[in-house]
Fold this sequence. Notes:
Elements: H1 4-26, E1 54-55, E2 64-70, E3 77-83, E4 92-93, E5 98-104, E6 107-111, E7 117-119, E8 124-127, E9 133-137, E10 143-149, E11 156-157
Antiparallel strand pairs: 1-2, 2-3, 3-10, 4-11, 5-8, 5-10, 6-7, 6-9
Amino acid sequence: MLNTRVLTSVVVALATAITTQSFAQDRTGAASLASAKAGATQGNFTTYDAIPWKPLNPKQPGLQMFVVWGNPNEGASEIVQKFPAGWDSGWHWHTAAYEGVVVQGKWTHTFKGAAPETGRPGSAYSQPARQVHDDKCEEGAECIIVAYFHGKRDFMPVNMKTQ
């Protein structure tokens, strides 16, 4: 069994590899962090306890996010998302593709027509644009996901009863 320090290192390395590669491919000149604006020469470091969480979706209280870089309302971005234990998104799709890495909790991702897949910290998945799917943070602990969206982050609910 891995100890917490080793597991945390693996998760951080995986998240960095995914998001750094994606950022390098898709950033199209956008500033990566607030500190990168106006030619800043100093980097930025935010500890977990200092993250300025913001509501992810006002219609779904309890969902929170932290923007690492970009503007999720306008284009490509990397965000850290926090979900309460037991939360279920319902079936939906996004205009842009994205990749996700589970940092905390037990996360279930289900593609329409496929069996649910559940992962713990270190698990990674990719979601094609416009593909219907469902996400769930399983009971027991809140979930934290790092996600890189290739374009604007939106949420398009799907009524599966009419499908």
